[in-house]
């Protein structure tokens, strides 16, 4: 199984984003948190800034939209070239239709669920998505503690994808460290977002440490994203 480490630039220096992207060039994708101060109580960046990041980034973009009205905004991120676009189930009126639209445009279609959102209702439509993001903190801020109570959701998703032979990626976001990444990998996650744990140190070293820790679970190999 391929594993991916996606640093979140929410913990990067916002005054020097291009240099920060260079510091994480050994990662698989760069996780970009878009927040609108409505879906979550925090505000980060929007389409103009993310479009510039797309133009200068050495690695593909993994855009995480924590915004209301996903139908209105998500397609534009796919159109400007984001490799993966994640919208929240709680912010979408028709997740399957939106996922189909993102795929049609050429992006990987990904859906996130907040800690209080059950996953069972989506197991039957898993084939419509390229990735499911199981939030392991309440979205909005970096530096929070990993919620191990979310692991049963990952196990259900992992069982469902195996049963149906799907290669949907299972992403975790929030509180991922060299300790919690092992817990998440054991539960079935293969794609790991890490913000503060990457940027609190030397990013390339932290990325290597996270990769090493995740690979302890089973015989995993590293490979970059493929389209
Ligand atoms: C939180 C964001 C995360 C955040 C994770 O709402 O979606 O991507 O950057 O930060 P850490 O890794 O510090 O929990
Ligand atoms: Zn995120």
UniProtKB/TrEMBL annotation:
* Keyword flag Zinc: yes
Binding positions (substrate): 8, 64, 140-143, 173-175, 195-196
Enumerate the residues binding a divalent metal cation: 31, 33, 64, 173
* Active site (record annotation): 33, 173
Report the catalytic activity.
D-ribulose 5-phosphate = D-xylulose 5-phosphate
Query: What pathway is this protein said to act in by its record?
Result: Carbohydrate degradation
SUPFAM superfamilies per record:
Ribulose-phoshate binding barrel
**EC number annotated for this UniProt entry:** 5.1.3.1
Q: What does this protein do?
A: Catalyzes the reversible epimerization of D-ribulose 5-phosphate to D-xylulose 5-phosphate.
Family stated for the protein in its record: Belongs to the ribulose-phosphate 3-epimerase family.
Record-given protein name: Ribulose-phosphate 3-epimerase
Q: Which organism is it from?
A: Lysinibacter cavernae
């Amino acid at each position: 199984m391929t594993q991916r480490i996606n640093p979140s630039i929410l913990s990067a220096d916002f005054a020097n984003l291009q240099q920060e992207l260079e510091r994480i060039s050994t990662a698989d994708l760069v996780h970009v948190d878009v927040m609108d101060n409505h879906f979550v109580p925090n505000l980060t960046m929007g389409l103009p800034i993310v479009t510039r990041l797309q133009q200068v980034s050495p690695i593909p973009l993994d855009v995480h939209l924590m915004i209301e009205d996903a139908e209105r905004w998500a397609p534009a991120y796919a159109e400007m070239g984001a490799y993966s676009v994640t919208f929240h189930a709680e912010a979408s009126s028709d997740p399957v239709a939106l996922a189909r639209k993102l795929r049609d445009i050429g992006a990987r279609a990904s859906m996130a669920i907040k800690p209080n959102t059950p996953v069972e209702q989506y197991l039957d439509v898993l084939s419509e998505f390229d990735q499911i993001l199981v939030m392991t903190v309440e979205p909005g801020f970096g530096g929070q503690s990993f919620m191990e109570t979310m692991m049963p959701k990952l196990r259900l998703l992992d069982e469902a994808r195996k049963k149906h032979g799907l290669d949907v990626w299972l992403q975790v976001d929030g509180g991922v460290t060299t300790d919690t990444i092992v817990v998440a990998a054991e539960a079935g996650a293969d794609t790991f977002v890490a913000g503060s744990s990457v940027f609190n140190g030397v990013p390339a070293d932290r990325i290597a440490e996270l990769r090493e820790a995740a690979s302890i679970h089973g015989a995993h190999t590293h490979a970059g994203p493929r389209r």
